[in-house]
Design a protein that fits this description.
Layout lengths: L9 H7 L4 H35 L3 H7 L3 H19 L1 H20 L4 H28 L6 H29 L3 H21 L4 H7 L4 H11 L27 H35 L3 H25 L5 H18 L7 H29 L5 H28 L4 H8 L1 H10 L11
Length: 441
């Protein structure tokens, strides 16, 4: 209870108290959910060589297939993500797991390019919705001190999933064919449903805001599980504490500059990032390496990414985040552009891939922390949604543009420097991001 003797709101109780193991358990589950997202997104890239061989696809056709889940992700982020505010984080979390299970199974049993394309878009709906619900859950179960750290850690779970995809897909390809990559993902998604069902309670923030039937009892039970037995203020929030704004506010006044800069920054890096991770397995195979060696390259990219995500989470607590992001964006651009010049031996290629992965994934994780610093609190939620939605465009354009350049006869030595310009553009844009009062950006 507060020093004045007044009862605190549930979210205020969580904000002020140290985090207990039950809160960290929810964060870990959210990290694993993002890892599942990472596996599902990369599955099509890792299966690409087998799909091309079985169906005789051109590079342009494969380039069309590679980013299709991002169309579903954009829809999932906007529409299914909105459902988390209306019906709860936990319910939408479970719904997204069901969608992903069905979509991945559909990809595994696809009989032509059209059915595979449809299943990838459908899977993307669940991936996008899970991304929104996992981020919201982890944020609302963290205290104020650790909120930025936990959000960056959850974003890093995506990197972990890509690493797992590269490791498991190699074994799956050796013992089966490309379809096993998708069916394995479907089984993992299915097995994750009871984990969420029994171990993840509804978020306290949602219960306090939406006030569903029996919310006081649910709030008290959840708080007790987290070690808080004090009475709490269950009255409705004052009407003036929740400013209802239009998304168009993002493009008005001083906020417009912040929104445009963040859109360019995130879009540019996502374009470079998804070109690199989507095309590298296939590009490595074209050079003369085996499909399994291609998965090893992606595995090292992911290991570098895991290291980069962790380094970003730690460094962001002591180093100016804006400067850190600019440094990593430049590192992304240089390492992706230089990658083709280190493909002469497998060892050098693995080292180059690790370095590129470090910078690319560090930027992805750091962007989530930067959102909280860049946008004013009144437009933070809508700002994140708009920037992430724009980023889905880069996720589609990156692999597609790379496919067109390869189909036009350009070599990896030409395509990679061109596609690296996305991260460079993001670094330049971030130079003009204004400092917010009270932040360390």
């Amino acid at each position: 209870m507060s020093s004045t003797g007044e009862k605190r709101r549930p979210i205020e109780i969580l904000d002020a108290a140290p985090m207990v193991w039950r809160q960290w358990l929810v964060v870990v589950i959210c990290i694993l959910a993002m890892a599942l997202d990472g596996y599902d997104v990369m599955s099509i890239s890792l299966a690409g060589a087998g799909i091309t061989q079985e169906w005789g696809l051109t590079k342009a056709e494969l380039g069309f297939l590679l980013p299709l889940e991002f169309i579903g992700m954009a829809i999932g982020l906007i529409f299914i993500g909105t459902l988390t505010d209306l019906y709860g984080r936990r319910l939408v979390f479970l719904l997204c797991l069901i969608i992903i299970t069905v979509g991945m199974a559909g990809s595994g049993y696809a009989f032509n390019m059209e059915t595979l394309a449809a299943s990838r878009v459908f899977t993307g709906l669940g991936i996008g919705g899970m991304m929104a619900s996992a981020t919201a859950l982890s944020s609302e179960y963290s205290n104020a001190k650790n909120r930025s750290l936990t959000v960056i850690m959850v974003a890093g779970g995506y990197t972990f999933g890509i690493y797992l995809a590269s490791q498991f897909s190699g074994m799956l390809l050796e013992g089966g064919d490309w379809r096993s990559i998708f069916t394995f993902g479907a089984w993992i998604s299915f097995a994750f449903i009871p984990v969420v069902l029994f171990l993840v309670p509804e978020s306290i923030g949602f219960l306090e805001r939406r006030r569903p039937e029996g919310f006081e009892e649910k709030l008290g039970k959840t708080l007790a599980q987290l070690g808080h037995d004090e009475g709490f203020d269950a009255s409705a929030p004052a009407a003036d504490t929740e400013e209802k704004i239009s998304p168009m506010r993002l493009f008005e006044g001083d906020t417009r500059r912040i929104t445009i800069i963040m859109m360019i920054c995130y879009l540019g890096n996502i374009l470079t990032y998804y070109y690199f991770v989507k095309w590298m397995p296939a590009a490595v195979t074209d050079i003369g390496y085996t499909a399994v060696e291609g998965t090893r390259v992606l595995g090292m990219i992911s290991i570098g990414g895991l290291t980069g995500s962790i380094a970003m989470a730690v460094a962001s607590r002591v180093i100016n985040l804006k400067h850190l992001m600019i440094f990593c964006l430049m590192g992304s651009a240089i390492s992706v552009a230089a990658f083709p010049f280190f493909t002469g031996t497998l060892t050098m290629m693995l080292i180059a891939g690790t370095l590129a992965g470090f910078f690319l994934f560090a930027v992805i994780g750091g962007a989530f922390g930067l959102f909280a610093y860049a946008f004013p609190p009144a437009v933070l939620g809508s700002g994140v949604g708009v920037v992430l939605g724009t980023g889905r465009g880069g996720a589609v354009v990156g692999p597609w543009a790379g496919g067109l350049l390869f189909a036009a006869g350009m070599s990896l030595y030409v395509v990679s420097p061109i596609m690296a310009l996305g991260s460079f553009m993001g670094a330049v844009a971030l130079l003009f991001l204004p400092k917010q009062s009270g932040s360390d950006v």
